[in-house]
TrEMBL record:
<feature type="transmembrane region" description="Helical">
    <location>
        <begin position="136"/>
        <end position="156"/>
    </location>
</feature>
<dbReference type="Pfam" id="PF01284">
    <property type="entry name" value="MARVEL"/>
</dbReference>
<feature type="transmembrane region" description="Helical">
    <location>
        <begin position="293"/>
        <end position="312"/>
    </location>
</feature>
<feature type="transmembrane region" description="Helical">
    <location>
        <begin position="201"/>
        <end position="225"/>
    </location>
</feature>
<keyword id="KW-0677">Repeat</keyword>
<comment type="similarity">
    <text>Belongs to the MAL family.</text>
</comment>
<feature type="transmembrane region" description="Helical">
    <location>
        <begin position="66"/>
        <end position="89"/>
    </location>
</feature>
<feature type="transmembrane region" description="Helical">
    <location>
        <begin position="237"/>
        <end position="260"/>
    </location>
</feature>
<feature type="domain" description="MARVEL">
    <location>
        <begin position="30"/>
        <end position="162"/>
    </location>
</feature>
<dbReference type="InterPro" id="IPR047123">
    <property type="entry name" value="MYADM-like"/>
</dbReference>
<feature type="domain" description="MARVEL">
    <location>
        <begin position="167"/>
        <end position="318"/>
    </location>
</feature>
<feature type="transmembrane region" description="Helical">
    <location>
        <begin position="40"/>
        <end position="60"/>
    </location>
</feature>
<keyword id="KW-1133">Transmembrane helix</keyword>
<protein>
    <submittedName>
        <fullName>Myeloid-associated differentiation marker</fullName>
    </submittedName>
</protein>
<keyword id="KW-0812">Transmembrane</keyword>
<dbReference type="InterPro" id="IPR008253">
    <property type="entry name" value="Marvel"/>
</dbReference>
<feature type="transmembrane region" description="Helical">
    <location>
        <begin position="101"/>
        <end position="124"/>
    </location>
</feature>
């Protein structure tokens, strides 16, 4: 959805012209502009990260696989974006070019951030000193560089007053990315059904995570596909209703999840030391009690994100011109 952002107003426009890019489209000189150079840094840092790890085979286990996937995926999509901008192919790209680059950059920053934390804490520290460990440490450094580069792109290309831009470049749009990413991390931590099965309250929490994730993902996909007009209700109303519903649902999850996971009166486990799964330290794994705690923290983070989303969505006014 093309929008013009003012202090409290987002004006939707019917025109699809303008690409909202600070690079010179369809020219090799695009790579000499600040944003082009930044994307080259992203490409280089992710390429070096997965190359260092691949050269010594240092990505065993689910956490290592996730980090390797993150670097390879970010490298591939960044390369596609560079090719599209160099060839001036934005109009032929199947997704909205107003929304896709910044949406991807935000996801990539979060992906690389997670890899920069997960890879050294769950894998690198268990490696013996030597070539593999040195390569793994260097890969972590380049992963951090990639994270900073992607975050810088988000800061440079986000919506500012008076600009014609896409919804995903606004604060609520970027919060949608954060909300879906945090939900995906929650899903990873609750991948073991034993954490919530046979307890209706905890099953309700899982349903909350799934429902809110789907709704936020739908909002993102509608913007990426430039098809917000297919909704039976105005898109601004949909966004406000989505944010309000998600706040209410996550508020119940924030109460029920810690209550049934850590309160003995409801069958919870208040102390980590009493969890037999955490008695011994397993390489490349997270014990059940730590998973429960991580989900509780992530639930609080996502509730704050949805609250901010609700506040910013209420302040935005969409006016067609």
């Amino acid at each position: 959805m093309p929008v013009t952002v003012t202090r409290t107003t987002i004006t939707t426009t019917s025109s699809s012209s303008g690409l909202g890019s600070s690079t010179i489209v369809g020219s090799p000189w695009a790579l000499t502009r600040p944003l082009g150079l930044l994307r080259l840094l992203q490409l280089l840092s992710t390429c070096v990260a997965f190359s260092l790890v691949a050269s010594v085979g240092a990505w065993t286990g689910p956490m290592g696989n996730w980090s390797m996937f993150t670097w390879c995926f970010c490298f591939a999509v960044t390369l596609i974006i560079i090719i599209v901008e160099l060839g001036g192919l934005q109009a032929r790209f199947p997704l909205s070019w107003r929304n896709f680059p910044i949406t991807y950059a935000c996801y990539a920053a979060l992906f690389c951030l997670s890899a920069s934390i997960i890879y050294p804490t769950t894998y690198v520290q268990f490696l013996s000193p030597g070539r593999s460990r040195d390569h793994a440490i260097a890969a972590t450094v380049f992963s951090c560089i990639a994270c900073v580069a992607y975050a810088t792109e988000v800061a440079w290309t986000r919506a500012r007053p008076g600009e014609i831009t896409g919804y995903m470049a606004t604060v609520p749009g970027l919060l949608k990315v954060l909300e879906t990413f945090v939900a995906c991390v929650i899903f990873a931590f609750i991948s073991n059904p034993n954490l919530y099965q046979q307890k209706p309250a905890l099953e309700w929490c899982v349903a909350v995570y799934a429902i809110c994730f789907i709704l936020a993902a739908v909002a993102i996909l509608l913007n990426l596909g430039d098809c917000t007009n297919v909704l039976p209700i105005p898109f601004p109303s949909f966004l406000s209703g989505l944010a309000l519903l998600s706040v209410l649902l996550y508020a119940t999850a924030l109460i029920l999840w810690p209550l049934y996971q850590f309160d003995e009166r409801y069958g919870g486990q208040p102390q980590r030391a009493r969890d037999v799964n955490c008695a011994s330290k397993h390489v490349h794994s997270v014990c059940s009690w730590d998973r429960r705690l991580a989900v509780a923290i992530l639930t609080a983070i996502n509730l704050l994100a949805y609250l901010a989303d609700l506040v910013y969505s209420a302040r935005l006014v969409f006016v067609k011109v």
